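Deviation from plan, reported transparently: UFG complex.
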Amino acid sequence: MAILLTGGAGYIGSHACVEFLDKGYDIIVVDNLVNSDKSVIDKIKTITGKDFKFYEVDIRDKEKLQGIFKENKVEAVIHFAGFKAVGESVLEPLKYYDNNIGGTISLLEAMKGSNVNKIVFSSSATVYGTPKTVPIREDFPLDAINPYGRTKLMIEKILKDLYNADKCWHIGVLRYFNPIGAHKSGIIGEKPQGIPNNLMPRVCDVALGKEKELTVWGNDYPTGDGTGVRDYIHVVDLAQGHIAAYEKILKKPGYYVYNLGTGKGYSVLEIIETFQRVNGVKIPYKFYPRRPGDVAKCYADPDKAREELGWEAKYTLEDMCKDAWNFVVKNMAQ
Ligand code: NAD
Ligand code: UFG
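Because the crystal trials were delayed, the predicted structure below was used instead.
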């Protein structure tokens, strides 16, 4: 029996493939490569020394997807495939609803058709909207504030309805905080297409000299140094959280929700300071007004995942900054 990973060629999915393979699981990857590259599949094989089936298929293609489920013995699905750019989702909401929600429904139908009833879904801390307090617990009110976030929230609701209608399902919803970093080997990591929006890829662009300085969005937040605070989590910790979640949901049907974060918040200035110190590079920066839609502080209460999954993040901010830069130097420096 294999575990099928949708979006397994992407940033988080590729790290999850490595962790599942390293733990001895058989996997199958389905990805249409809309935001990734075929070479990642070979890189996963290089790192792990293991082979697996890869299907270059769009999960919205119901016929092909159902064929994959018929052709293979699938135990469970880890569902990463989807679009993730908040700004783009505001400009092109239909593209996001179609791919994220349409893709998930097509996937759930294919699973149902082949009696596969175990799924772990990539949700996001974005479903908490603007939290009234931090740290954020799983039972906080949910309120997405942009189309991307709404797709995540709607998918969570679809999954809950599915479980309510048929209590045989085993469903794990993982709300990620801010994944950064890369595999220690420097072979796989985050390779954003176009101009990145997120902090760590932008810090790396400045360190590479592609950008003159980093724009720091806002220095008047009610935080220690006035810049935004986030819960950055090493992508390998996050990937391992999926194994813990899969092994948990396997035991008993249910609808389970977990935050995957470290529980620690770091400011933009702390990220810049740490990145400079551990990598010996300079990150010039300039303050700009707040970015619309940003919250002051967002970090997880990770207790539920620790208590119920026996999982907790172990990598430090230093590790995250070192590993992110190691990947960039090996893959993107001219
Ligand atoms: P990514 O873009 O690197 O990976 C997504 C993968 O899915 C890509 O390889 C892409 O080609 C594939 N894909 C997209 N649509 C597809 C489709 N219709 N059929 C088949 N494959 C498709 O993104 P990521 O950072 O690895 O994120 C993975 C998941 O985690 C996404 O669902 C994302 O919304 C969620 N998430 C990411 C973050 C983050 O900061 N990276 C935070 C919270 C949640
Ligand atoms: N920031 C800068 N300059 C930049 C980029 C970011 O100062 O060039 C700041 C932001 O203002 C914020 C922090 O760095 O304070 C982190 O910003 P990111 O864009 O890296 O991450 P966000 O927390 O804003 O967004 C992430 C994901 C979204 C998800 C959201 C909520 O990228 O997909 O978390 O979970 F919706």
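The longest strand covers residues 118-124. We consider this an acceptable substitute for the interim report.
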